[in-house]
Amino acid sequence: MPDQLSIENWRLLASYLFLVMLLVISCLLRLRRGKEFVVAAIRMTLQLLLAGYILDLVFGQNNPLVTVAIFFFMQGFAIYTIIHRLKHKISSRLKRTVVAAVFLGTSLPLAYFMLVVIAAEPWYEPRYFIPIAGMTIGNSMTGITLGVERLNQAFTSGRARIEEALMLGATPQIAVSEFLGETFSAAIIPTINAMLGMGLVFIPGMMTGQILAGSSAIEAIKYQIVIMMGIAGSVSLAVYLVIQMGYRTYFNDRAQLDENNYVAKRNS
Amino acid sequence: MPDVFSLKEATYREILYIPELVIPGSTLFTITGKSGSGKSTLLKLLNNLISCDRGTISYRGRNLNSLDPVILRRKVVMVPQTPYIFPGTLEDNIRLAFNFNGKEPPEQAAMKDLLATFGLPFNLDQDSANLSGGEKQRLALARAVLLEPDTMLLDEPTAALDAETARDILNFLVKWVKSEQKAVVMVSHAGKMIRSKADWLLTLADGQIKQLEKLANGRFA
């Protein structure tokens, strides 16, 4: 196994030349987004440094409570990000749905993954648990965001269709069934595309990291396959839950479109 | 003949206030009034697409709030002013309506016959996207009639039609309520034609009842 090349601090700093390049390009294009790029780069650096130190601490401990607490923190951050990343404000009922979808959609596949697929000993082994949780939560976050966006779009632009169906005697579920299928497909497209391009179009970050760290390519690929399957399962479950529970929030208990749950555009 | 709807102190926001109103069975009950007078809101209340804030609405003697809204809408079908025509053929539209209504669709011959009665003598596989505004309105009406509901709530069903077609449709509705013991509650601009066909004419103004007339069309007067 080859030795891992360590990155000296001055070389780490040298990589920031790429940021300078980005800033120069944005100046040339008069984008006026330099500040945004600098903030993004600083945030990325600080977040990773912080994560690195925390992970070092976490990997060194042997307490399931700490691992689970970090898992909940990651889920909480994902929920916060989803709600703030949406282009529209969402009702408190839909927010609760997002919370449930993130929690169930990532916890159940992760439990299966840790206990059955990689059978880690102990089950909470942080070296496996934390990175895998991060990947499933991150991808589910993207899926749920897309799912909620599309759901909202269906109820806004497709309102006439839904109302017509209700007038003809449809249950809310039948009235929106076509939209639900479309919404699910749209929300899992990034995951499916990632599977299709995997290994051909791009070498995923985790695999790159493992190879750089000295693992054999075959071993890295095996991990990547099981991770991708885990991500696909987690995204599907999370998106399915958010759609199935989410569409109900647009109706009241009289099977009417709930005006209070119609979302207002952000003022920004 | 039992009443289809009875309203008491029915209030919806600042839009509509009906102190008392009875819509009898086997009638063609028309509602008229200026734009914004609450006509469409009244139809939506009867379809339970919205609920009144205060007061009660009863259907066949039972409070609407005690009925399953979906089962109610399967009996009391509404056709809005600008109906939504589902993408696909004429037959797709009819089949989808039956799917929504939880019923088995009729034979193709029955679909074709009714479409022809409504001035749509087309093949069932014709794309509904090619229909004109008036044709879409008639397709929506035919879709509703085929469902054989107990009551139809129609929002200006003849608005986009020429006088002759409008008369044919009204004649059909008069026959329908009479022979099938059903009711039609219909929003329409009052005109001579309506006065000569309908049994009742309710005039709304600013969300309140301005006038309720029992028309002398020779059937119930």
Q: Can you tell me about this structure?
A:
The complex is a heterodimer of chains A (268) and B (221). Chain A is mostly helical. Chain A folds into 2 domains: 1-60, no CATH class; 64-261, no CATH class. Chain A is built from 10 helices and no strands. Chain A starts with 8 loop residues before the first helix and ends in a 22-residue tail after the last helix. Chain B has 221 residues and is of the alpha/beta class. Chain B has one domain: P-loop containing nucleotide triphosphate hydrolases (Rossmann fold, 3-Layer(aba) Sandwich), CATH 3.40.50.300. Chain B contains 7 helices and 10 strands. Chain B has helices at residues 39-46, 69-75, 90-101, 108-117, 133-146, 163-179, 192-197; strands at 3-12, 16-24, 28-33, 54-59, 62-63, 76-79, 151-155, 183-187, 200-205, 208-214. A 6-stranded mixed sheet of chain B has the order 6-7-8-3-9-10, sandwiched between helices. In chain B, helix 3 (90-101) crosses helix 5 (133-146). The model of chain B has no long low-confidence stretch (mean pLDDT 93). Chain A binds chain B through residues 160-161, 163-171, 174-175, 254-257, and chain B through 47-51, 65, 69-71, 73-74, 77-80, 82-84, 86, 97, 99-102, 143-144, 147.
Features:
heterodimer, A: 268 residues, 10 helices, disordered C terminus, B: 221 residues, alpha/beta, 6-stranded mixed sheet, 10 strands
Q: How would you sum up this structure in a few lines?
A:
The complex is a heterodimer of chains A (268) and B (221). Chain A has ten helices and no strands. By secondary structure, chain A is mostly helical.
Helix content of chain A: over 70%
The CATH topology annotation of chain B reads as Rossmann fold
What is the end-to-end distance of chain A? 54 Å
Weakly predicted, low-confidence segments of chain B? none
Tell me the CATH superfamily of chain B.
Answer: P-loop containing nucleotide triphosphate hydrolases
Strand content of chain A: under 5%
Distance between the termini of chain B: 15 Å
- Please list the strands of the largest sheet of chain B in the order they lie side by side: 6-7-8-3-9-10
